[in-house]
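User: I'm putting together a small comparison set for a docking exercise, and I want a reference complex before I start. The sequence is below, and the ligand is zinc ion. Could you produce the 3D structure with the ligand included, as structure tokens?
Assistant: Of course. I'll restate your input first, then give the structure tokens for the complex.
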Amino acid sequence: MNGLSEEKSGQELFALISELYPFCRSITGNGVRQTLEVLQKTIPVVRHEVASGTPVFDWVIPQEWNIKAAFIKDPAGRKIIDFDSCNLHVVGYSSPVHQVMEFSELRKHIFTLPDRPEWIPYRTSYFKDSWGFCMSHNQLLSMKDGKYEVLIDSSLTQGHLTYGELLIKGKTSKEVLISTHLCHPSLCNDNLSGIALAWQLARTLSSVPLKYSYRFLFLPATIGSIAWLALNEQSAARIQHGLVLAGVGDSGRSTYKKTRKGDTEIDRAAMYVLRHSGEDFEVMDFIPYGYDERQFCSPGFNLPVGCLMRTPFNQYPEYHTSADNLSFVKPEFLANSFRKCLSLLNVLERNAVYINQNPKCEPQLGRRGIFRAFSERTGGPEQEMALLWILNLSDGTCSLLDIAERSKLPFDLIWEASELLLQHGLLKATAVQ
Ligand code: ZN
């Protein structure tokens, strides 16, 4: 499925992240629309708008937040904080304010990271009426008593929650869900890396024949996935496998967080791909905390949706700070995550359960020319074993992935062998595929 060189893929992923980096995204607002407009230049993602006030299960779509400008001017009238230079300076969803106030009063609205005095934290205040600024701790220490002019030119209105959706149709209406959040402002690993990876997967899958249909969702975290699930319960029922992508561009090892069920096909395919990557990796059991897998795996849905990351979100100091920037993600790590994702989808696409049509003793493969045909196609000493393993285990209960695991042979070799046996009428697909 992969027509891209790894180097080119990494550069393309990084270029998209660089283009999206300056936008001020939040759970609603024009930053989300701007982001989707950039994606729409290369993939036919559809923009959906859900009106403020719409009930979605136990939640309500909030007012839409937009911001034009924000600053703090010191007692001498110098602009010491400017939203235009870094959108992390304003607490997301800050209500509008324009006041002159004493430093002691302003101080209550300032957030810093004393342990990382150079970095600016990322903060939000969804679902409550407040405002605030984020800055480096060093900058806070340099501020003196006196009167400061504070402006946040933001608006909270009856608007919409915006999300993007793209369905790539395959042979069946059974779906693979690829979901990522798009609600963070200038932060690269969390969450632009997930957006970029989903975009690259969508571009790649658009040009190849597929067994499954693929539904891509670009959602504001939490409220976006809750809204989508509330408004699309019928579509949700078609999801056979799902993956949330987040934090896939840092230098850490790949991490897969299992689905709530813990032993679904996507869990097994992800672990298979990571085990055979030749690289260090981590597998986490499901916990009801993290990204939107929390909603997809809520008990009322319990969808088989796992999460692919590199370093988990709360385990790197740059997380939710200005240090999660364009230097923190690298093309090579993005490309590495992309390659693993494609391998995982390749396993899902090719995995199947077959029934041996000649189960009483081994069929005579030499007479059918199968050994010769197989060695011409793939070469190597493992071919005969692949054929024998498939014939032996294909009793309608073992999938090709089961056979690859048990035989310790590469999945693609097992798949190649199964195709040949199918052509010779020695295998038949089970009804449930
Ligand atoms: Zn985040």
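The chain has a mean pLDDT of 95. The radius of gyration is 25 Å.
User: Thanks, that's exactly what I needed.
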